[in-house]
Amino acid sequence: MPISRRTFLRSAAASALLPVVERPPTHLLPGPDGDGPPLAERAARKGLFYGCCAATAYLDDAGFAQALGREAGVLVPEWEGKRGRIERRPGVYDYSAADRLAGFARRHLMALRGHALVWHLSNPGWLDEALSVPGASDRLITDYIARVVGHYRGQIQSWDVVNEAVEVEDGRPDGLRASPWLKAFGPGYIDTAFHAARRADADAVLVYNDYGLSAADPWSASRRRAVLALLTGLRRRDTPCHALGIQGHLRAFGPRFDPDVFRRFLAEVAALRYRIIITELDVRDDGGPTAPAARDRAVADLTRRYLDVALDQPATLGVVTWGLSDRYTWLATPAEHRPGTPPPRPLPLDDALRRKPMWHAIAAAFDTARPRTHG
Ligand code: G3I
After folding, report:
1. In angstroms, what is the span from residue 79 Cα to ligand 1's centroid?
2. Would the pLDDT of 5 be above 60?
3. From the CB of 15, is ligand 1 less than 6 Å away?
4. CB 356 within 8 A of CB 350
5. Which residue of 128, 222, 223, 322 sits 20 to 30 Å from the alpha carbon of 248, by its own alpha carbon?
6. Is the CB of 55 under 6 A from ligand 1?
7. Is it the case that residue 2 has pLDDT exceeding 60?
8. What is the CATH number of domain 5-368?
9. Based on the number of CB atoms within 10 Å of its own CB, is 340 exposed (0-12), middle (13-18) or buried (19 or more)?
10. Do the Cβ atoms of 170 and 179 come closer than 8 Å?
11. From the CA of 118, how far away is ligand 1's center (Å)?
């Protein structure tokens, strides 16, 4: 039974991040196989949000665009919001591709996440050169953020301001990545980025986003320690970072997921007065059985166990999957997928846009989550 529009709006309004939008009730949205309300609506009725990333090119696929508009309440540009796409030449800003995704989000009454302002990857070649010049100015950070965040002011619910600044293998005591940013400006580049974002948009939720924080292995434990140290320092310096983005690139047949370990980490983050967003959830399914049904079951089981912990933490605001359908996933690119192995099935919809066990696992996690009364 679809929830009434009033219930949906009240819950959407309760989630501080989502503008109050009037999306048509479910029975007006063509469903793929009638398994009930879309993920966006199930999340919103609990004061949470569900969304996914997409690339501009996928919008030309009518079937995918319809599924995207139905299932997601939040949209993130997969590539188009990165500096390598926006500022290919110094001072020349091309928002066209990201604007097309922003337009889709607006037309479908979806909120928009910004990704990612400061990252060590997907930068234009000229920037890496400029950062390597002794005495480089941190206007290489602040000017870019002022321009891009200013361009999207009022459209963005939350920004990934700094992405993946931790890399324990680089051997620093603070566990920070020896990125071109850190080499040029020291660890303070992170604070600089967040202050610049705050000056450019006083309303967006500002997020530090990173990966490798969920599993029980020593590598993930070292990353959790480094991220907690980073977040503690930002809080101590009163830097305007509001939330931790936990990417959530999981492995169905990889390092063990221990719910208690993950629950403790989320509690430590929340105790530092940060909100939490699961920002890039997908589940690699290689390294185990080859039968799709067995892989789908394992992916759904891990998804449910993971989200039950994440959504049980009151500080968690929402869940974003890194793609919606197996038809479009970064895990199928040559850099990630071994030739001759079955195509990956890491996302809620299959390549024919049908709801998979993972979709049902996400739906059940939202349905059983405690309602939020966001303060
Ligand atoms: O579209 C251009 C094409 O016009 C151009 O000719 C070609 C030349 O290289 O590049 C194409 O862009 C590619 C883009 O994806 C769109 O497909 C880039 O090369 C490629 O590097 C880019 O990969 C993205 C990657 O981040 C790097 O930005 C993936 O799609 C995206 O899924 C991945 O997402 C990251 C998150 O941002 C951060 N967390 C990890 C996650 C997975 O790596």
Report:
1. 5
2. no
3. no
4. yes
5. 128
6. yes
7. no
8. 3.20.20.80
9. exposed
10. no
11. 15
pLDDT, one tens digit per residue, over 185-197 is 999 999 999 999 9
The domain spans of the chain are 5-368
Other residues' Cβ atoms within 10 Å of the Cβ of residue 205:
20
Q: Copy the structure tokens of residue 120.
A: 């060590």
Contacts of 236 (CB under 8 A, 6+ apart): none
Is ligand 1 within 6 A of the CB of residue 296? no
Q: Whose CA is nearest to atom 38 of ligand 1?
A: 163
Q: How many CA atoms lie within 13 A of 225 on its CB side?
A: 12
Which ligand 1 atom minimizes the distance to the CA of 280?
39
Q: Is 201 in the pocket of ligand 1 (CB under 6 A)?
A: no
pLDDT tens digits, one per residue of 56-82? 999 999 999 999 999 999 999 999 999
DSSP letter (8 states) at residue 166: B
In short, whether 336's Cβ falls inside 6 Å of ligand 1 is no
pLDDT in tens, 7-21: 333 334 334 454 444
**Ligand 1 centroid distance, CA of 78 (Å):** 7
CB neighbours of residue 63 within 10 Å:
12
Q: 49 CA distance to ligand 1 centroid (A)?
A: 25
